Amino acid sequence: MLFYEPLFLFLFGPAVYLIYLFFGEVRLRRAIILFAASVIFYAWSEPVFIFLVFASVALDLYAARMIVASSEQKQRKLWLALGVVANLAILVYYKYTGFLALNLDALLKALTLPGINIPQIALPIGVSFIVFEKITYLVDVYRGVTAPARGPLLYSLYVFFFPKLLAGPIIKYHDVARQFEAMPHADVDDFVIGFSRFMLGVVKKLLFADTLASGADLIFSRDIGSLGFTQAWAGVLFFTFQIYFDFSGYSDMAIGLARMFGFRLLENFNMPYVATSITDFWRRWHISLTSWIREYLYFPLGGNRRGEARTYLNLWICFFASGVWHGAAWTYIAWGAYNGVFLVLDRLFLVKSLQRLPDWCANIVTMIVVIVGWTFFRATSLKQAGALLALMANPWAQSGAEIVIPEEYVVVALIAAAICVAQRLSLYVKDFDWASAAQRYAMASNSALSVLFLAALAKGLADPFKPFIYFRF
Length: 473
Description:
Number of domains: 2
Number of strands: 0
Distance between the termini: 16 Å
Largest sheet: none
Structural class: mainly alpha
Strand content: under 5%
Shape: globular
């Protein structure tokens, strides 16, 4: 069930919200309503996997209580390790078994040995986000950052909370524990602010991301011999804007829906395409993942406390792991390793070099690095990624066939680029009171947003549904 499907927009979402408002007089009842709605929301797409999640939730709760109850540090570490390994085992089995088997089969055949059967295992939606959030709970309890959940209902709601369930933001338990314990009651302001944010996300997804996705698919589905310099750049730029509007659109919908129910989720994007270095980009892009990696991988590896060489290695390992987390394919692994290299280069000299340039120039250099990375991310293979990058580096490369790119794709891409440029320009306006202006023009902006929202819904109903890019990550 997707947020912009008619089933959610016109039946599930309104029904759950009205039940929550009119029957959630007491805190416990609000928790039960949200939990039941979240389970139905997830079971609609994953009726089998949900039972495994319930079993792992029970293990988390037991392991957390044993961590607190154990008097010896060794026992506490063993219970933490058990919980973390059990969660990672779910991720590895569902996400990486096929990939590992496929590569083992290729290796055996290269050695002229008999191959193996490649298991066909369906990847449950949101499995990476679910596993990472469950690990944060166990680590938070072990570190003493938070107490174990007061009951199975609250922890289960944290795991299944449907606004963020499919693609984040990745919520750390200690950031939202008090909210889930208090179970806030939504008011009119929550609805207005939340629904406005939700509409913005739908507009981003349906009007921008889905149109740009068609442009990217048009290029990336072609034989590389039929492409030239212009087509290669067009396809990669289509995807560059697509992934931003798609993923930030989902985050807007998730944050907006949560706000409608009275919950505040942390922001996941902060104008990433205005970044002036790769380090700056990762402070702005998928903030919840970057924060998770810093707290639960970079710091445990030693962070920057064990000398420069170890710091560089830790940075690279973290973003290599980020690539592995994103998907079971060599393209994602290459993308993670590539970003890790540039983060190390930032530490070594690149940030200082970029700081000597005008901001707009540093932004262009950073965006070129980011765009090259997105080429790996979107490509179907390393071979395709390499061939596209070779075309992008050769202005004289001519296409081997006439490829007509519909004008609407180009127009939407230009509007998307203009929005990112406007974000960049907004940083130079130092003394303007944005908060006051937002209040002054709130009615006009919400009216315009409502019109775009209706247009997005009309487009969504007319065109085939395109799932979120991070739908099965």
